[in-house]
Known about the structure:
- The chain is mainly alpha-helical and 276 residues long.
- 62% of the residues lie in helices and 3% in strands.
Amino acid sequence: MRGEVIGVWSETWREIWSKLAKHPDAPEDLFCELYRDLAGAFETPLDVTALADVVDDPVQARKAFRSAKASAFRGEVALLGFFERAHNVVVDLGGDPLANRYFLLIEAFLDKFSLRYDLRRPFSLNPTLPGVFARLIRDLRDATYQDAELHPLMVEFEDAIRDLKTSQSPGRIKTCIQKQVNLLEAIGQRCPGVTSNTLGAICDEVGTWPHNRLKDAMKKLYGFASDYPGIRHGGTPANSLRNIEMRDLVAVSILLAGFAPYLTNLINSDTIYSGS
């Protein structure tokens, strides 16, 4: 999943706007009205006079719209707002036939570039669960990259995951879980007010839990990693019910990653959901 629209904005002219303009119900001044709304998503607002000069000329408006760069926008949320406002513009200018064409073009665009949104009628771009999770991992990677001590731990965890391609042995699976727990433990130590250096004790100190049962769930996962033989310690062989498998890695890794926002202020859960 590539993620956000802003990252593939340069592709939208060919995939969306030029095709929309060719529709029989598309008026000559389509880009005049669209550019007026697009300018509202810019980081630096256009001068009123300059904007008026563009939107009063269909040729100039089309050229300005096509040349708009992703770097000009305030961010993903502002760009999504434009796409949703653009639907209203298209409805006003070309009615249902043009609006339906716009909807289908956006839907195809999201699918082609594997973006993190689901499109719902009449026109609403909503984050998907895979998109939210992908953004969580990306933001976690970005946050650790900026820290000289956390970055090597993130690299070790990702390398351990990649090594599974060679062999999905119990030993390699245990290494993946161990590296992820080590990473979360180090991340938790950066949380304000934390003085402990073990993940279980960190859970008691972060003060971010909405309910004690969530905290207990995180501590039990940590307990599993400590007690299962060969993950973090020798563990308790008698407590092992079977050899560890890939399904355990998938489940435990997703659960551990999901707890990361409780352990750090390095990532923002609002932007994980809605985009930057």
